[in-house]
Structures are given as C-alpha cells and as structure tokens.
Amino acid sequence: IPSPRLVVGNWKMHGLREQSTRLARAVAEGAQALPDDVRLVLCPPFTQLASVHGIINAAGPAAPLCLGAQDCHTTSSGPHTGDISADMLSDLGVQYVILGHSERRQAHGETDALIRRKVEAAEAAGLIPVVCIGETMEERLEGRTTTVLATQVEGSLTDDFSGVLAYEPVWAIGSGSVPPIDELERTLSLLHGLLQSRLKMDDIHVPILYGGSVTPAQAPTIFSIGSLGGVLVGSASLEAKSFLRIAESA
Ligand code: PEP
Fold first, then answer.
1. Ligand 1 proximity of 48 Cβ (cutoff 6 Å)
2. Burial of 35: CB neighbours in 10 Å, binned 0-12, 13-18, 19+
3. Phi and psi of 132, rounded to 5°?
4. What is the C-alpha R_g of the chain?
5. Residue 84: left (phi > 0), alpha (psi -120 to 50), or beta?
6. Which residues pair with 250 in a beta bridge?
7. Residue 123: which domain range?
8. Which residues belong to the annotated binding site?
9. What is the pLDDT of residues 221-238, one digit of tens each?
10. What's 203's domain CATH number?
C-alpha cells in the first residue's frame, strides 16, 4: 500500500472568508485523530489560500495537513492579467497544485499540451502537481476509455513526472455515480502500465488517486483497492465531517 494515502479536498469556487476558515479549522481539529499514514490536502480557491495556510500552520508540523491550489499559469511571472503563477503559490506556502481538472479542460479549453507546460512550471517552483485525467460518458460508451487515458497520460505529463495522477471519470464527477470497483481496479492497473511506458525513469513513484462522487459511504470500498494512492474529493470536502470520515477510511 502506498503511504501516506492522500485525501485531497477540491473546494472549487466555494467559500467566502468565514465559511472557509470555519471549514479549515474543523478539518484541522479532526485531523489530529487520523492515522499516521493519511495526508489531507486542502485546495481552497486562490482568495482563501493565505487564511487556510494560517490555520494549517497553527495546527503545527505534526498535523497531516497540506495546502493545495486549483490551477497555475505556465510561466513564473509576466503580463498575464488575472493569472497566478506557481512561484506565487509556492511563496504563499502552497505545496500541491491541481492541474488539468475536467472543469478547466472543458470550460477553459485546456489541452494536454497546455497542462504539461503547467506541470513543468509547477515542478520548477517545487510544487507537487496533481494531474487530472478521465474519460467522458460519451467516450466511455464508445469504448474509447483506454485510448483517451493513454492520450492524456502521454500528453499532459512530463518525461520525469514525479507528482500525483488523479483518475477522475468526467461522468462520475458530481453525479453520485462511481465506477464498479472491479472496473476501477482494472483502470488503475492500466494507468500503472501507462505510467511505466510513458515515464523515462526506472523508479516510478506516482500515486494514483480516484476522484468522482467519493462519499463517506463509498470510501471504504474505494480504499479497499490496495494500489490506490488516495482520493480527490469535491462536494464531500466542503463539509468537515464528511471529509474527515472519508479520510478515516483511507
Ligand atoms: C472533482 O470535481 O474533483 C470531484 C471529485 O467532485 P465530486 O467529488 O463532487 O464528484
């Protein structure tokens, strides 16, 4: 079993100051009771990174808490109005950055090539990229899942990628549906194989997360897959109790 298992909370575009600090405080308090081999990564919107960082800091270095962001630019600074660079995130105490989420691929037209440049920028800034890949329902029904995942692994990762890969079937996100567990197991071993052939290193340490409608009720079954590196949680991460219950199953 890869250790520690990551439980990443993607808050998306949710949370004003009060709600975000309340949520982060409640997670930090509950995190003290978690087993040693679990690490929580809180990914608030950019505007709440500094305040959540303060709460994580106050919890102390022994707390299994890290700060993550939801995107970064491909360059470290420059004339890019409205963008945020990986260096800026790192400077703020951010350790992880989610890249290539399906919502950014769809709503912002992010391509594998662009995501790869963001991965390079994140790595150069010392951040750990969490790269999201996954097939749509249409691609799944057409039997193209393997091809789609292979293309995304090929295009969006760097040759010496040592971040985190998140398998998020687009149809599972926010839908309440999770792939059947035997199918998920097969997809994970497919991804391990794709990483082996894609990356130009002998020693590959890339945890693979599952994301898409992970709830406290589903979590024990999902975590029963031994090779799973953790989960990426959307809606259920907006409530401290449910996020912590998911982490308890890790
Ligand atoms: C996500 O969007 O990354 C996600 C996993 O969302 P949810 O858990 O709400 O399906």
1. no
2. exposed
3. -95, 135
4. 17
5. beta
6. none
7. 5-248
8. 10-12, 174, 213
9. 999 999 999 999 999 999
10. 3.20.20.70
Position 197: which residue type?
Answer: S
Q: Render pLDDT for 93-109 as a digit per residue (tens, 0 to 9).
A: 999 999 999 999 999 99
Segment 133-157, tens digit of pLDDT: 999 999 999 999 999 999 999 999 9
- For the entire predicted model, the pTM comes to 0.97
Asked if the peptide bond before residue 4 counts as cis, ω within 30 degrees of 0, the response is yes
Cβ–ligand 1 distance for 40 under 6 Å, the answer no
What letters, b where the CB count within 10 A reaches 16 and e where it falls short, cover 221-232?
ebbebeebbbbb
Counting atoms of ligand 1 from 1, which one is nearest the CA of 236?
Answer: 8
Which two three-digit tokens encode residue 159?
């040759």
> Separation of 237 CA from ligand 1 center, angstroms?
9
Cα separation, 165 vs 180, whole angstroms: 20
Please give the tally of structural domains in the chain.
1
Determine contact, residues 230/130, Cβ cutoff 8 Å.
no
Cα separation, 250 vs 13, in Å, equals: 26
Distance in angstroms between the alpha carbons of the first and the last residue of the chain:
11
Tokens standing for 90?
A: 């790192």
- Please classify residue 16 by burial: count the beta carbons closer than 10 Å to its beta carbon, then call 0-12 exposed, 13-18 middle and 19+ buried: exposed
**ipTM for the complex?**
0.97
190 phi and psi angles, rounded to 5 deg: -60, -45
How far apart (Å, rounded) are the C-alpha atoms in residues 59 and 42? 13
Catalytic (active-site) positions: 101, 168
C-alpha 140/C-alpha 143 separation (Å) is 5
In the chain, the amino acid numbered 227 is S
